[in-house]
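Task 17 of the worksheet. Students: predict the tertiary structure of the chain below and write it out as structure tokens. Keep your answer in the requested format; marks are given for formatting as well as content.
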Amino acid sequence: MRKLAVFLAVIALLASTVGPASASSQGHGYLALGDSVAFGTNPLLDPHNAANFIGYPEIVAQTLNVEHVNAACPGEATGGFISLTGLDNVCRPYRFVRDFPLHATYAGTQLAFAEQYLRDNPRTRLVTINLGANDLFRLAAGLDPNMPPPSTCFTPNPVLYQATCAVQNLNTIFDGLRSTGYDGLIVALTYYSLDYRNTSGAELLNSAMLTSAAGRPGVLVASGFDAWKAPAQAVGGDTCTAGLRIALPSGGCDIHPSPKGRDLLAKAIVDTIAASCEGSVQGCLNRRQH
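Model answer:
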């Protein structure tokens, strides 16, 4: 984790168990996908109880009054999302070695779970996803030379990886979600920057998601980057000082959102949906997207 924090600082970026639920009282279902930001990771809490962690999907679900399933996995990378032998950060060890449960129980990949969930729950009307930071974390940490190379697209160059492999993987994910017959709304959330005095790293990180989501019917992009920008800039750019990241007892902040930061990410998603529907969020969730 220390290596990851250093990498983030250098490039100035972020880088209780439930089963599949059907429709809510509003006639909608909501599936949340992603990594530790969606999961609600907090290093100060006991990781052996998933109910301790509240991510932005829980706030989105409360705001929209919809039932939801949060399938996010801390450390999930775009490659590992697709394949159990794809590029991964700590999602697989988190699940299979450390016995840290997720909010949703599944043995395969997050993509396989998502596809099956959407087939089993045809009234689902919203999917959110944030993904990509852990690909760059893994590049920064280096691959284990004693392990076989990832089965998914790989190059050690971060810029090239974002332009090729990350985009390719995200395209596979979006296509996989739609291959189930799901015709509801998909909202992709971009990452925040740790320090808004230098955002080049966050912009690189978000480039793959922006490229892959562009022009896809029924896919909106909610800017987590913009959600934190004004509060951070009000205190000179540091998101720790702004209270947007989890404060550590030893001083400084973890890379993950505090409740304040989390709630701003959730608001960005809800506001993005509302803006696309001219304020009628429920009407938009009911609408076929393509």
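Marker's comment: The chain has one domain: 2-286. Residues 192 and 225 are 4 Å apart (CA to CA).
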